[in-house]
Write a structure and sequence with these properties.
Blueprint (H helix, E strand, L loop, with lengths): L38 E2 L2 E2 L7 H5 L18 H4 L1 E3 L3 E3 L2 E8 L6 H13 L4 E9 L2 E10 L2 H7 L4 E2 L4
Parallel strand pairs: 5-6, 7-8
Antiparallel strand pairs: 1-2, 3-5, 4-5, 6-7
The structure holds iron/sulfur cluster (2 copies).
Length: 161
Protein backbone atom coordinates (compact mmCIF):
# COMPACT_ATOMS: atom_id res chain seq x y z
CA UNK A 1 0.00 0.00 0.00
CA UNK A 2 1.23 3.48 -0.68
CA UNK A 3 -0.05 6.32 1.37
CA UNK A 4 -0.12 9.32 -0.88
CA UNK A 5 -0.96 12.94 -0.48
CA UNK A 6 0.73 13.66 2.84
CA UNK A 7 4.27 14.87 2.36
CA UNK A 8 5.08 14.35 5.98
CA UNK A 9 4.59 10.60 5.65
CA UNK A 10 7.43 8.23 4.96
CA UNK A 11 7.20 6.08 1.85
CA UNK A 12 6.33 2.38 2.03
CA UNK A 13 9.23 1.65 -0.32
CA UNK A 14 9.54 -2.10 -0.83
CA UNK A 15 7.28 -2.92 2.10
CA UNK A 16 4.01 -4.63 1.17
CA UNK A 17 3.38 -6.14 4.61
CA UNK A 18 -0.21 -4.94 4.85
CA UNK A 19 -1.04 -6.41 1.41
CA UNK A 20 0.33 -9.81 2.44
CA UNK A 21 -2.59 -10.76 4.65
CA UNK A 22 -1.11 -9.52 7.93
CA UNK A 23 -3.80 -6.84 7.85
CA UNK A 24 -7.16 -8.57 7.48
CA UNK A 25 -9.76 -7.51 4.92
CA UNK A 26 -13.01 -9.34 4.25
CA UNK A 27 -13.53 -7.24 1.13
CA UNK A 28 -10.22 -8.41 -0.34
CA UNK A 29 -10.47 -11.87 1.24
CA UNK A 30 -6.99 -11.48 2.73
CA UNK A 31 -5.90 -12.82 6.08
CA UNK A 32 -2.82 -14.40 7.64
CA UNK A 33 -1.58 -17.02 5.19
CA UNK A 34 -3.63 -15.52 2.35
CA UNK A 35 -2.17 -12.39 0.71
CA UNK A 36 -4.29 -10.04 -1.35
CA UNK A 37 -4.80 -11.57 -4.79
CA UNK A 38 -3.99 -8.21 -6.41
CA UNK A 39 -0.50 -8.05 -4.93
CA UNK A 40 2.07 -8.82 -7.62
CA UNK A 41 5.82 -8.56 -7.99
CA UNK A 42 5.23 -5.23 -9.70
CA UNK A 43 3.08 -3.94 -6.85
CA UNK A 44 -0.68 -3.53 -6.65
CA UNK A 45 -2.29 -4.76 -9.90
CA UNK A 46 -5.38 -2.59 -9.35
CA UNK A 47 -3.65 0.44 -7.85
CA UNK A 48 -5.84 3.07 -9.55
CA UNK A 49 -9.01 1.24 -8.50
CA UNK A 50 -7.86 -0.11 -5.12
CA UNK A 51 -10.56 0.14 -2.45
CA UNK A 52 -10.67 2.97 0.03
CA UNK A 53 -10.79 0.59 2.99
CA UNK A 54 -8.20 -0.63 3.79
CA UNK A 55 -5.89 0.26 0.88
CA UNK A 56 -6.15 4.06 0.86
CA UNK A 57 -7.23 4.61 4.46
CA UNK A 58 -4.69 2.41 6.23
CA UNK A 59 -1.37 3.93 7.21
CA UNK A 60 0.77 2.07 9.70
CA UNK A 61 2.41 4.00 12.52
CA UNK A 62 5.87 3.63 10.97
CA UNK A 63 4.72 5.79 8.02
CA UNK A 64 4.17 8.66 10.45
CA UNK A 65 7.54 10.12 11.51
CA UNK A 66 5.88 11.58 14.59
CA UNK A 67 5.28 8.02 15.78
CA UNK A 68 8.94 7.99 16.79
CA UNK A 69 9.42 4.54 15.29
CA UNK A 70 12.93 4.38 13.81
CA UNK A 71 13.77 3.51 10.21
CA UNK A 72 14.64 -0.09 10.99
CA UNK A 73 11.19 -0.66 12.44
CA UNK A 74 9.65 -0.69 8.97
CA UNK A 75 7.15 -3.56 9.16
CA UNK A 76 8.78 -5.85 6.60
CA UNK A 77 12.13 -5.40 8.35
CA UNK A 78 11.11 -5.74 11.99
CA UNK A 79 8.24 -8.23 11.67
CA UNK A 80 5.45 -6.09 13.14
CA UNK A 81 2.86 -3.66 11.81
CA UNK A 82 2.06 -1.04 14.43
CA UNK A 83 -1.36 0.56 13.97
CA UNK A 84 -1.54 4.33 14.02
CA UNK A 85 -3.34 5.90 16.96
CA UNK A 86 -5.00 2.84 18.35
CA UNK A 87 -7.49 2.84 21.21
CA UNK A 88 -8.97 0.11 23.39
CA UNK A 89 -11.72 0.84 25.93
CA UNK A 90 -10.64 4.44 26.28
CA UNK A 91 -6.92 3.69 26.53
CA UNK A 92 -4.50 4.98 23.92
CA UNK A 93 -2.52 1.89 23.08
CA UNK A 94 0.35 0.63 21.00
CA UNK A 95 -1.29 -2.03 18.86
CA UNK A 96 0.87 -4.40 16.82
CA UNK A 97 0.24 -7.19 14.32
CA UNK A 98 2.84 -9.80 13.41
CA UNK A 99 4.27 -10.01 9.91
CA UNK A 100 4.36 -13.79 10.01
CA UNK A 101 3.33 -16.15 12.77
CA UNK A 102 4.67 -14.14 15.68
CA UNK A 103 6.32 -10.81 16.33
CA UNK A 104 10.04 -11.59 16.70
CA UNK A 105 11.20 -11.45 20.32
CA UNK A 106 13.70 -8.64 19.71
CA UNK A 107 11.03 -6.51 18.02
CA UNK A 108 8.53 -7.23 20.76
CA UNK A 109 11.02 -6.12 23.40
CA UNK A 110 11.58 -2.88 21.50
CA UNK A 111 7.84 -2.31 21.18
CA UNK A 112 7.27 -2.91 24.89
CA UNK A 113 10.00 -0.32 25.64
CA UNK A 114 8.40 2.02 23.09
CA UNK A 115 5.02 1.63 24.80
CA UNK A 116 6.50 2.18 28.26
CA UNK A 117 8.22 5.38 27.15
CA UNK A 118 4.83 6.65 26.06
CA UNK A 119 3.07 5.35 29.18
CA UNK A 120 0.76 3.40 26.90
CA UNK A 121 -0.27 -0.24 27.16
CA UNK A 122 0.63 -2.55 24.31
CA UNK A 123 -1.77 -4.99 22.67
CA UNK A 124 -0.34 -7.41 20.18
CA UNK A 125 -1.52 -10.36 18.15
CA UNK A 126 0.20 -13.73 17.78
CA UNK A 127 -1.00 -16.34 15.30
CA UNK A 128 -1.22 -20.07 15.75
CA UNK A 129 0.03 -22.30 12.94
CA UNK A 130 -0.48 -26.04 12.57
CA UNK A 131 0.95 -28.02 9.67
CA UNK A 132 1.73 -24.77 7.87
CA UNK A 133 -1.87 -23.52 8.16
CA UNK A 134 -2.90 -20.44 10.15
CA UNK A 135 -5.49 -21.85 12.53
CA UNK A 136 -6.16 -19.00 14.93
CA UNK A 137 -4.92 -15.88 16.65
CA UNK A 138 -4.88 -14.50 20.15
CA UNK A 139 -4.54 -11.03 21.53
CA UNK A 140 -1.96 -10.50 24.24
CA UNK A 141 -1.45 -7.33 26.21
CA UNK A 142 0.63 -5.75 28.87
CA UNK A 143 0.84 -2.40 30.58
CA UNK A 144 0.54 -0.73 33.92
CA UNK A 145 -1.23 -2.54 36.79
CA UNK A 146 -4.30 -0.34 36.22
CA UNK A 147 -4.46 -1.45 32.60
CA UNK A 148 -3.85 -5.10 33.44
CA UNK A 149 -6.71 -5.01 35.96
CA UNK A 150 -9.09 -3.82 33.25
CA UNK A 151 -7.66 -5.89 30.43
CA UNK A 152 -7.95 -9.20 32.30
CA UNK A 153 -11.63 -9.34 31.36
CA UNK A 154 -11.02 -9.10 27.63
CA UNK A 155 -7.41 -9.88 26.80
CA UNK A 156 -4.77 -12.34 27.85
CA UNK A 157 -2.20 -10.32 29.73
CA UNK A 158 1.54 -10.98 29.77
CA UNK A 159 3.89 -10.02 32.54
CA UNK A 160 6.54 -8.44 30.32
CA UNK A 161 6.02 -4.81 31.31
S1 LIG B 1 2.83 -1.95 6.57
FE1 LIG B 1 3.11 0.29 6.54
S2 LIG B 1 5.02 0.64 5.38
FE2 LIG B 1 4.34 -1.47 4.96
S3 LIG B 1 3.10 -1.33 3.09
FE3 LIG B 1 1.67 -1.15 4.81
S4 LIG B 1 1.45 1.06 5.21
FE4 LIG B 1 3.30 0.76 3.93
S1 LIG C 1 -5.76 -4.10 -3.51
FE1 LIG C 1 -3.65 -3.47 -3.85
S2 LIG C 1 -3.17 -1.98 -2.21
FE2 LIG C 1 -5.01 -3.12 -1.61
S3 LIG C 1 -4.28 -4.84 -0.35
FE3 LIG C 1 -4.46 -5.58 -2.46
S4 LIG C 1 -2.43 -5.30 -3.35
FE4 LIG C 1 -2.53 -4.04 -1.48
Amino acid sequence: MTAGGEQALRSCGDCTACCQGWLRSELLDMRPGKPCRHCSAQGCAIYAERPQDPCIDFTCAWLHPESGLPEDMRPDRCGAIVKWRSRWRGWETVSALPVGEKIPDATLRRLVDYARERQQPIIFLQHEVEDGEFTGSRHLATGTPAFIAQAKNGLRTEDVW
